[in-house]
Design brief:
Layout lengths: L2 H46 L9 H11 L1 E2 L1 H5 L4 H4 L12 E2 L3 H14 L6 H9 L10 H6 L1 H8 L7 H4 L7 H6 L4
Antiparallel strand pairs: 1-2
């Protein structure tokens, strides 16, 4: 092979390599940009997804703790850092509820307030409880609250007739700190 042929062959190799780079580079950039976009979308979805399989937010979990003494153990143990620590936890929908020490007592108070008294202040709450099938003979249970937390929240604060102020024990779990954020 002559030196002239070697130069031509080298030029062809360089041109071919540059063409491959010019084709592959934009494809790689597009794939990386698309991957980053999908990553950001997934992070955003995880950030705003709720806790437990019921998709609860902080206010709803605080309500369950304060009213029913039902909580996520991890939240009870670290209430101030729980949400920042778990903001991007993709498994935060796997947390499970447990009953607190005074859960049954709280639910007994709720049932008494709703079904033993004829207090007009809670008439709309009593009506919504009846829609869910609860009455004096079929009271609300802790197991039902654990499996239906959103419905339990709806029952206890229907149409603004909240039973929360009558039942809250503000010293339990430091709830006064949480609820002061929301003006309760």
């Amino acid at each position: 092979m002559s030196s002239e042929d070697k130069k031509d062959y080298r030029k062809i190799k360089i041109i071919f390599t540059l063409q491959i780079i010019l084709v592959i580079l934009p494809i790689n950039v597009a794939l990386m940009a698309g991957g980053y976009y999908l990553f950001e979308k997934e992070q955003e979805r995880i950030k705003y997804m709720g806790y437990t399989e019921y998709d609860l937010n902080k206010l709803q979990m605080d309500y369950l703790i304060g009213l029913y003494d039902i909580y996520i153990p991890e939240y009870k143990n670290a209430p101030m850092t729980f949400f920042t620590d778990n903001m991007y936890n993709p498994d935060k929908d796997k947390y499970k509820f447990v009953k607190g020490e005074s859960c049954e007592e709280q639910i007994e108070k709720i049932n008494s307030l709703l079904f033993d008294n004829n207090d007009r202040n809670y008439e709309s709450v009593r009506e919504i409880a009846a829609i869910y099938g609860f009455n004096k003979d079929n009271p609300i249970t802790s197991d039902w609250v654990i499996t239906h937390p959103m419905d339990a929240i709806r029952i206890s604060s229907y149409k603004g007739d909240s039973i929360y102020p009558a039942l809250i024990d503000r010293d339990r779990y430091g709830i006064e700190v949480y609820w002061s954020e929301y003006g309760f």
